[in-house]
Amino acid sequence: MVTLEQFIADRQQEFERATGAFSKILRDIGLGAKLVSFYLRRASLAGFLGELGLTNIQGESVQKLDDMANRLFLNLLSQNPHIAGLASEEEEHIIQANPAGKYVVLLDPLDGSSNIDVGVPVGTIFSIYRRISQVGTPCEEADFLQGGRKQVAAGYILYGTSTLLFYTTGQGVHGFTLEPAAGEFLLTYPSVQMPSESSYYSFNDNQLHEWAPGLQKYVQDLHQRNRTAAKPQSLRYVGSLVADFHRNLLKGGLFMYPGTVKKPEGKLRLLYEGYPMAWLTEQAGGKATDGIRSLLDVEPKKIHQRTPLFLGPASEINRIAHFLTENVIVETA
After folding, report:
1. Phi and psi of 135, rounded to 5°?
2. Is the pLDDT reported for residue 331 higher than 70?
3. Angle at which helices 241-251 and 275-283 cross, to 10°
4. Which residue has the higher pLDDT, 177 or 50?
5. pLDDT tops 90 at residue 114
6. Biggest alpha carbon–alpha carbon distance for the chain
7. Dihedral of CA 222/217/307/52: which sign?
8. Three-class SS of residue 187?
9. Which DSSP state fits 182?
10. Which residues of 180-324 form beta strands (DSSP E)?
11. 270 to each of 9, 65, 244, 249, 324, how far by Cα in Å?
């Protein structure tokens, strides 16, 4: 019965010289997760389902719960004295918080929100950096564009049959389950390791004809291997990154959301989805790329930059890179 706060306190030395800042930041993220979980369970009864009638910076329709989760996390975290600024997938610009704070936080407040109305699990993704601008002054966009290797913590919350919080500080991946009666996240998945072989594959091949020729050949190869394998991989794809990634993390599987020949930059966001999920994957023993390069080594140029995303066991990710190298290299815009 180890709580999230106890676990962090016991391992505080892993994060920035035991200042206590991380525990306070993650405590607030955990509190936000509890509140979002509460509202999600009551969404259909409280009139939270459906679209708000607005579009976000990505040009996507904003769901009512998208807006609620975004405002909730931003209001909650902006009051944390250790957080200098925030960036959200739902906001066009960075948000100033506390100039004296030493950290900045990036959020995808409600990943997979298009699935809300049909009860499919959704999630929250977060990433934390130590600011590089001068403490005591407003944070700058450069604080958020340091690159994936500069993350000091990253994780996700999955809202499904139970509410789960998984995170890393570069010392492995650890998972916690919310006990609603106690209102506490309890350690249930210590030191998670992704299986070295894929049991599942998760991707939407609706645009297969628009993918790079090498990737089309990889999919053909995957189906051919499955026809002769003693234990073929199974397709599991619900269209919610957190849900698909979580299953593959625990059971072993490939997730990919590639770009197309016309739009090689892909759809998913590098900072809000790519970097945190890539670091979690690597810390769990898997591999994360944009098809060719390690995703954590891709240079960020803007806060809403997009990227192709390939996550899974190294053997499968390396096979994809082989097919792409032999044909068309995926470039990140």
Report:
1. -65, 140
2. no
3. 10
4. 177
5. no
6. 62
7. negative
8. strand
9. T
10. 184-192, 200-202, 234-235, 253-257, 268-269, 287-289, 306-307, 309-312
11. 30, 23, 17, 19, 20
Higher pLDDT, 116 or 251: 251
What's the whole-number mean pLDDT along residues 70-92?
96
Mean pLDDT calculated for residue range 84-113: 95
Residues 6+ apart with CB under 8 A from 290: 266, 274, 298, 307, 308, 309, 310, 330, 332
Q: What are phi and psi of 270, to 5 degrees?
A: -60, -50
- The letter for the amino acid at 172 is G
pTM over 0.85: yes
The pLDDT assigned to 328 comes to 46
Average pLDDT (205-225) is 94
- Provide the total of helices (H) and of strands (E) in the chain, helices listed first: 8, 17
Average pLDDT over residues 267-282: 98
Q: Is 254 helix (H, G, I), strand (E, B) or coil?
A: strand
Cβ pair 77, 28 in contact under 8 A? yes
All structural domains of the chain: 4-192 (3.30.540.10), 200-326 (3.40.190.80)
Proportion of the chain above pLDDT 70, given as a percent: 90
Phi, psi of 83 (to 5 degrees): -105, 115
Q: Is the dihedral of CA 58, 141, 174, 199 positive or negative?
A: positive
Q: Taking residues 304-314, report their average pLDDT.
A: 97
119 vs 140, which has greater pLDDT? 140
Give the β-pairing of 95-96 and 83-88. antiparallel
Residue with tokens 């290797």: 149
d(CA 48, CA 55): 17
Q: How far apart are CA 218 and CA 328, in angstroms?
A: 12
DSSP-derived 3-state class of residue 237: coil
Q: Is 186 exposed, middle or buried (0-12, 13-18, 19+ CB in 10 A)?
A: middle
The Cα 34–Cα 304 span in angstroms is: 27
Backbone phi and psi for residue 124, each to the nearest 5 degrees, phi listed first: -125, 135
Decide: helix, strand or coil at residue 72: helix
Are 109 and 89 in contact by the 8 Å Cβ rule? The answer is: yes
| Phi/psi at 120 (5° precision) | -75, 140
